[in-house]
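Subgroup meeting minutes
Present: P.N., E.W., G.H.
Scribe: E.W.

1. P.N. recapped why we're keeping a running log of single-chain structure predictions: easier to compare across weeks, and new members can see raw inputs and outputs side by side.
2. G.H. added today's entry (216 aa).
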Amino acid sequence: MKYNYKNLFASQHEKFVAILGQDYFSSLLVDDDLSDTAVIISDKRIYQVGRLYESRSRIHGGGLRASRGKKIVSLHDVTGTACKEITKPLPGSAVIAFGILAATLGLLSDVRQSTYIMLVIAAVSVAAGIWLIIRLRKRYLIIEYAGGSIAQPVKFITDTELNLFAGIIADEKEKLMSGLGEIKDCPNCGERIHIGAKICRYCGEAQQEPATEESR
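Output recorded in log:
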């Protein structure tokens, strides 16, 4: 899945900065959670496209639920980033409980052969339960913003890469807050000028009027 950034961005004046998702891990697409979702940073906003993850804390068991679409968040509204691990312990715990029950029944049996069989079943069940708990544990990059959060699966991403991506978000927000986000390059001379300038103060070339941003 490739992304047309011009169609994705809310404004034609936005510039692509970074992406975390399928394009970034095109050689590691072995997990559905990673293969159809991406977080894209522009110099003004953060976009999540494909599969969107939302908190379901009000639902029994907590965790995240997924839907499809596009989420747009202004960098102005971003309040912080964090890495969070979420697991689904119920399936694995149920298998472990079955293993414990099997071991108990085996020890209570008067038939030695039945005891051995039940203990083997118990050992396999406990091991399978532990594997399930580990297998169902997933790691997410949480981007907090006023009114909600973006959760992006980051199973194959190192801490260094996560810190780098979070740093990019912080840097772009700082630029935007300081006014640098309203700067563009003059298409004629390449000098940096205000995005709303009608004439370049370096070369005198007339600038195109900035388009009105589409409503979100």
